[in-house]
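To illustrate this point, we now present one chain and its tokenised fold:
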Amino acid sequence: MKLTVSTTQRIQLCRDMRTQTGDAGALRAWWKLEDIFALDDKEKAAIKFQTRLVDMQEVYLWDSSVSLPDKVVELELIDVARTKHALTTSVHRAQDRAWLEPLLAELEESASAGLSLVKR
């Protein structure tokens, strides 16, 4: 499945992947997805991306006024399921609606198109 993700969605997806738990095999699957969505060094520099530790939590900061092109990623069905799992099990705030709702809708559309999203 092809998934189009904005810069904000990519950053938040990486955050969600980093909060997942599991055995070594599961962690490798989460790391694979994090690598797919991660910004490269040039993209990070362009948006002045920073990671800070606040109250023992990683906080991501960036200049949201700088626009980067959306990225189209190709995901296997299992990766679609894992991405949806990460999004639906991570803690979000109401203000995340602007980036979260379109992403969930796109993932759910793939399910209604007849793709089986099996939780693994």
Observations:
- The chain has five helices and four strands.
- The mean pLDDT is 89.
- The first helix runs from residue 7 to 18.
